[in-house]
Amino acid sequence: MKTLINSILLCLCSMQVFAGVAVIVHPNNGDTIDKKAIENIYLGKTKSFPGGGQAVPVNLEGGPVREAFDSTVLGKSSSQLKSYWSQKVFTGKGTPPKEVASAEEVIGLVSSNPNIIGYIDSSQVNGSVKVIAEF
Amino acid sequence: MKYKQAICLGALVMSSAALAEVNISGFASVVGGQVLEGSGVEEFGLEPTFLADYPLVGAYTEEISFEPDTLFGIQLSADLLEGLSATAQIVSRGANDFEADFEWAYLSYEFNEHWTVQAGKKRLPLYYYSDFFDVGFAYPWIRPPADNYTWQIFNYTGVSVLYNYLIGDWTLTGQAYFGREDDEPNKLLSEFFFGEPTREIWKDIGGIVAQLNYEWLDIRLTHMQYTNERYIGGEQVEWDGQTERDGKFYGLSVNIDWNNVLLLTEINRLTLQGDDLDTYLVTLGYRFGSVMPFVSYSDFDDGNEIHNTTSFGVRWDFHPSAAFKIQYDDVSDEGVGAGTEDSWRVAGDSKSISLGVDLVF
């Protein structure tokens, strides 16, 4: 029971740590990218932006922003996603998005390549990237 | 280090540099179990047995054992860029005395976003779970229901073409494949059914798979055909005076993952020389956060060999990469001619318990 209360508290705390999830692309990317399109790209169902350009998703390695993105945008728990990708990886039908360790790395990749899509804590957004959706 | 990763990823994205990135991933299951109560098969001198994995003869008895379902797998995948990659999967199983074998070894070439061709040795994608049979983390049970996954051939060497289309809110994926398998000695037939070294050949294997997916709904249709030849103890087997026989396989699977409800169904028919071998399974689970209890029923019936399994279990995702499972299986073996020389029983009735951990890395 104590553990349960602790984990609830921990959840509440970690929810307060970040402002929200901002999905970001290169400023030159003019596509309209809705939640469904983001989901399709992150689940490997498509490798293109709605406008046709190549889309390469980047994931954060872990932490509250990743968890919020997985549950809010993809609608799956981290184990459900692991299970989903393990089916694809071990049958040669797909590979999960690359993972990087920090928001700075996501910004660095997104701002230097119009094909890359990423997400970070809303409070860390700067002028080098374009926010297409916030959750 | 950060800089290096960025360069690596950048190179991968732009496909410009001749840089091979090797990914190592893997899966493991450590499972123990035992038969609590079983009839055995008197006419074969078989003690109470639960045949949990037909192709590899993973069988539990009244003594606790870890061999039948325990396995370790490592996958190496080299990305050679420009759409080319090479993948190998090495699996070591308790049911095979932990000998490590190359289960998969293939080259893959991505023509474009929609089409990929793969050539080499792969898992035969017959049933829904066939090609990730070893990856326990990817499904609810300890192992896919044994009554359905009974086929003696589970790998093939050949070519397959994979496709992937997003149509509105639906995805259409699947593959077409062609190949053969010459397995000597075939473990299931040699050790369990004929008691003599058996060479099992499936040639001209050709199949198609089409899978439609919409958010919570997943429908899979498949057809496969092959030509069978068999040698028992070096002698070629004849069926109705012929050394070859043709098999045609049809399968339909409908899975629903809606809110916390998981419903998995599969129905299959193999027509072999005019005989129909029918299998089906139904599993219903409900997710309470990270804990999912489930009930399952699976059935095999070819008119002579008849058996089914009722299972209850729980999967608990105690870690993002690991799941604990416990499962109770009640097998009913209704093979005709029980107690006679012409008995079609397989392993008799049994009630068993198994538990373990599946993980992926």
From TrEMBL, chain A:
Superkingdom of origin: Bacteria
Signal sequence segment: 1-19
Keywords: Signal
Name of the featured protein: Phosphate ABC transporter substrate-binding protein
Naturally occurring in which organism (per UniProt): Shewanella jiangmenensis
TrEMBL record, chain B:
SUPFAM superfamilies per record: Porins
Phylogenetic classification of the source organism: Bacteria, Pseudomonadati, Pseudomonadota, Gammaproteobacteria, Alteromonadales
Domain Porin positions: 13-348
Stated name of the protein: Porin
Organism: Shewanella jiangmenensis
Domain of life: Bacteria
One protein family per Pfam: Porin_4
Signal sequence residues: 1-20
Gene3D superfamilies (UniProt xref): Porin
Keywords, sorted A to Z: Signal
Keyword Signal: yes
Family annotation (InterPro entries): Gram_neg_porin_domain, Porin_dom_sf
